[in-house]
Amino acid sequence: MASPTPAAVNPENTQASTDKAASGCSTTTMGPLLPAKIPGALAHRSGLLLCFALLLALLALFSLAVGSKHIEFPVVLDALLNPNDSADHAIIRDSRLPRAVLGVLAGSALGIAGALVQSMTRNALAEPGILGVNAGASLAIVIAVGTFGINGFNGYVWFAFGGAVLATGAVYLVGMAGARSNDPVRLVLAGVALGAVLSGIGTALALVHPSAFDQLRAWTIGSLEGRSADVLAPLGIAVLVGVVLAAFTGRSLNALALGDDTALALGYKVGRARVLILLAVTVLAGAATAAVGAISFLGLMAPHLARRFSGPDARWMLAYTAVLAPIILLLADVLGRVVIPGELEAGVVCAFVGAPVLILLARRKKPVAV
């Protein structure tokens, strides 16, 4: 009885077996390698973000020691851990610590608001002021001081927040109401137009009321100095609400970056997404601008810097911006204390520090698109 011919002797069977083995190797070996890249990128981004967060904490701690009176770090740590009634502890507790916390909260709020506006409008030059936030807050301050005689920061800060909210709402109504499509260009044009009108009215009223003009000038510069600790709790609540709203817009921002038609095809509700983004911008930018003044350059520069590390994903870009923006603001505040005798306002230093960085980013061969 003849034995059967082995399958391996047949050249066709041999080639088929080889192809099948190669195919199986590619699916079992290469398959796990592709998802492995995602945890690697996630670990890299998370680690880098953690490094920036540690840098922010160190910079905030350093800001407690720097000022017109230098305080040693052991004294700073002792004031934080074991406070007493000494003069150095009083300076840290009553002045520098609230100032550092204010810089972190306001910096994160302005940076995230700027990132949201740039992503929503797909405009690399957009910042919260383009929606009339600064103009509305300025006009409200002039009305509060000139009409109602409110001369303290704790009094007109609430007017500034209300003015920012009303101005942003008016910009949305003018730019989006009645529009067949949610074109972000209409929103930008409405913001620029209404911002110019509100700024003109505010300037005219300020010239009529000299006291209001002085208050407005001091607020417009933008500073962390002279702010009461009573503002920290409301600002913290507003920042928390704004961050939660911004977190819900991350996936929508990624879809909007592809265009409205693509976002609609993917199942996203573009109109609802833009309303949610505007709410987040209004809360964040309105509260921060009312607290520290019109530091508009921060919301323009920080998102550009964050994209260098985060890539195109809007969710990571928002996270990086939330950390990098307060680093820039605190650095500007610290430099303003030591560069010249006396003190230079953080809003002025922020522009001097940020302008070269933004120019450098713009001059790179491969600029990061919004």
Please characterize this protein's 3D structure.
With 370 residues, the protein is an all-alpha fold. The chain has a single domain, classed as ABC transporter involved in vitamin B12 uptake, BtuC (Orthogonal Bundle). Helices cover 76% and strands 0% of the residues. The protein is built from 14 helices and no strands. The N and C termini lie far apart (77 Å). The model is unreliable at 1-37 (pLDDT under 50).
Keywords:
single chain, 370 residues, mainly alpha, 14 helices, disordered N terminus
Write the layout of secondary structure elements.
Layout: H1 11-63, H2 73-81, H3 87-121, H4 133-146, H5 153-176, H6 184-208, H7 210-221, H8 232-248, H9 250-256, H10 260-265, H11 270-292, H12 296-310, H13 314-338, H14 346-363
Helix pairs in contact: 1-3, 1-13, 2-3, 3-8, 3-11, 3-12, 3-13, 4-5, 4-6, 4-7, 5-6, 5-11, 6-7, 8-11, 12-13, 12-14, 13-14
